[in-house]
Amino acid sequence: MEEQSEAIQGVLDSKHEELQVVKGVRHSDENQRKADRTEVQAHSYDVTKYERPSVTVDVLMMSLRQRDLQILLIKRAAWPYEGMWAIPGGFVNRDESLEFAAKRELQEETGVQDVYLEQLYTFGDPGRDPRTRVITVVYFALLDAERVQVRAASDAADVSWFSVYELPPLAFDHAEIVEYALNRLRGKLDYTTIAFNLLPDQFTLRELQRVYEIILHKRLDKRNFRKKILSTGILEDTGDKKMEGTHRPARLYRFNPAAEREL
User: Fold this and answer.
1) Does residue 90 contact residue 180 with C-beta atoms inside 8 Å?
2) Rounded distance, CA 205 to CA 232, Å?
């Protein structure tokens, strides 16, 4: 009984010590907050000293549709550029990150959710928006169009896919943004595996070559392309085959992330 009592007392002493440590941490945190407030007051920053530009996010989504490289555009429902086509996007709220804002705007204007976004570039020409000084951060996504159902949501009059080679007049500086994104995509073909985002899980070498040709907007030599792509080790033969027209069945491949390296 005495040993049990000592054990209980030991646990109580331990809990007491833990409580004192917690109190000490809280006291230290409170002291730090007080110090921070004092420093802010001593070095007060005048938020009116500089004009504050607005920040927006635009989301450029590309996909292969009907053997063509297409982007998703929305028709603007309000001034400025009411009735014109534009890249989906909108203003960033004070309490949200850029990526969160991009995903929110994409869902609000197109209904699209759960896509991987990569930050592309920042555009900040002083006259790019007639409303005020607006800096926009552009996000970029490549996806299989069959996996995404788009619809015009509350912030857009319409939504549709357009060929990057036959675009309608675009609002703001969005034509410049599309051109920049296309050049960046073409450049990435040489050193990344970005093209695989536009393919189904299994594909033929002919289908892969078609993706490259559509993006580059030119024909490639079949023999040289296959030699180069197979030498990278980035493809894995599935063992299955697929009929392509009247030709003999073609091998089906898949992307092998374990062998990923620069192409």
Assistant:
1) no
2) 14
Residue with tokens 């197979």: 230
**Percentage helix, strand, coil, to 5, in the chain?**
40, 25, 35
pLDDT, tens digit (0-9, with 9 covering 90-100), for 211-245 = 999 999 999 999 999 999 999 889 999 999 988 77
Give the number of other CB atoms < 10 A from CB of residue 4.
8
Cβ-contact 210, 69 below 8 angstroms: no
Continuous H helices in 64-216: 98-110, 174-188, 205-216
What is the CATH code of the structural domain delimited by 189-259? Answer: 1.10.10.10
Residue 164's SS3 state is coil
CB atoms inside a 10 Å sphere around CB 28: 10
Sequence spans of domains, the chain: 54-187, 189-259
11-62 pLDDT tens trace? 455 555 555 544 554 556 677 767 766 765 677 777 778 888 999 999 999 9
